[in-house]
Specification:
about 75% helix; about 450 residues; 16 helices; mainly alpha; globular; about 0% strand
């Protein structure tokens, strides 16, 4: 039976509310994530805390290590306290951690702040995606998730402007004080964001969930017969290595490692490496804006391309184009041409990794899909930790000119690994999952 226009209108308003609140939360997530890379050239030039390039790389890795911890624990914590409370806690956590960075008087305190911020950042994104998936209008889930993912890159754009407007006239600490302001958004989330329907159903609060779903014309998630225990999860993991599947699994893991090394290495070091290539600080920060604009476009078009041509093929091509773009950034070109290369690199880089998850999702058995995608994402996050560290080590060894080349090689490696995995020809299982629906693991 079709829903009444009144109910549909209320459902649309609720979806707009949830998506809008989650989009803003992810925007602040992106701001906090990218702000370090945006102020890093200034920190190195002024030798703040006596920081050296290798220490700067370590500091960049602290946040990504915190994100690894946050992402791995988010599901368990959300199952206990609810997704709404977890989102509020994550926003509060990374906001307060930015305050710790702003008042830091040593590298150790600053590093602690970045690590704690990373835990909040890592827990927020998957939780926000789960929330919008619950309340997205019928048949619009993939589009809504794609829209939500653009907020992260919008945060990257905002970080560049914050650094550009505040760092030189006021100082780098002002940029981190701006990142404390999202704590004012936490009470707004607490008041206006509804609890996840999936959480209510899982906790047996079925009547509450049914009333909310009926009131706003959204679908009620089905109650699962039972949660998988530790033994079941272990069995699902072991199944990834049975027979010849271990080769495919390792190829996916290696591709994901290289992909996230590239994503977070470039996100951390792009302004500094562009400064090393001779561009002014203002221009280097403008590249961050253009790069993230490309990321927004890439997130919106990658899914459609993968649906038409196949996620494995698009992933391999995207990584090849990313590697070419990143390598070209090591060549000093006219400003207009450089901007074009940065934009296109952003388009391909920020969605190439997503296509790995799409490939894994499509080619996994339905019963094992969540485990396969989750572990591919988890192994990739070790690359996210390694990427910022690698850039720092190259600069410390006076090989900054090799920075873009090293990141380009990571893109080539991911292209090779995902290409080999595609050529091995595993058949799709359990239906063709939309590539855009796997963007929940993209960062």
């Amino acid at each position: 039976m079709s829903s009444s226009p009144a109910l549909s209108a209320r459902g649309s308003r609720l979806a707009l509310l949830v998506v809008g609140l989650c989009w803003l939360a992810v925007l602040f997530d992106g701001l906090d994530m990218f702000i370090y890379g945006s102020v890093l050239p200034h920190l190195l030039e002024t030798k703040t805390f006596g920081i050296t390039p290798d220490q700067a790389g370590d500091l960049g890795s602290y946040a990504t290590f915190g994100m690894l911890v946050g992402a791995l624990t988010a599901g368990t914590v959300a199952d206990r306290i609810g997704r709404k409370k977890l989102m509020v806690a994550c926003v509060t956590l990374f906001s307060l951690a930015s305050g710790l960075c702003a008042i830091a008087d040593s590298v150790a305190v600053f590093g602690l702040g970045r690590t704690v911020a990373g835990i909040g950042l890592g827990g927020l994104l998957p939780t926000a995606i789960s929330m919008v998936s619950d309340y997205a209008p019928r048949g619009r889930g993939a589009i809504v998730i794609g829209l939500l993912m653009t907020a992260h890159h919008a945060g990257g754009i905002l970080s560049a402007y914050v650094a550009k407007w505040l760092v030189e006239p006021v100082g780098w600490r002002a940029a981190f004080w701006v990142c404390v302001l999202p704590i004012l958004f936490a009470p707004v989330l607490a008041k206006f964001l509804p609890e996840s329907l999936s959480f209510l159903v899982a906790k047996g609060r079925t009547e509450e969930a049914r009333a909310l779903a009926a009131r706003y014309d959204v679908e009620l998630p089905e109650a699962k017969a039972g949660k998988a225990g530790a033994a079941d999860r272990w069995t699902n993991l072991v199944n990834l290595f049975r027979g010849g599947e271990w080769i495919q699994t390792l190829l996916y893991w290696l591709a994901s490692f290289g992909g996230l090394l590239l994503v977070y290495g470039v996100a951390t070091w792009l302004p500094t490496l562009m400064r090393a290539e001779g561009y002014e600080l203002g221009s280097a920060l403008s590249f961050v804006v253009v790069f993230n604009l490309g990321g927004i476009v890439g997130m919106l078009v990658a899914g459609r391309a993968a649906d038409r041509f196949g996620a494995p093929r698009i992933s391999a091509i995207w990584f090849a184009l990313t590697a070419a773009g990143v390598f070209l950034l090591s060549v000093h070109m006219p400003m207009t041409l450089t901007m074009i290369v940065v934009f296109l690199t952003g388009v391909f880089l920020n969605s190439a990794q997503t296509m790995i998850y799409a490939t894994v999702s499509i080619r996994s058995n339905a019963d094992n899909r969540a485990t396969a995608v989750g572990w591919t994402s988890g192994m990739g996050r070790f690359g996210a930790v390694f990427g910022p560290w690698l850039g720092g080590q190259l600069l410390a060894a006076n090989h900054g000119d090799w920075g873009f080349t090293a990141f380009a090689l990571a893109g080539v490696s991911s292209m090779v690994f995902i290409g080999i995995a595609a050529l091995r020809g595993a058949k799709p299982a359990g239906g063709q999952a939309s590539a855009r629906e796997t963007q929940l693991a993209a960062h």
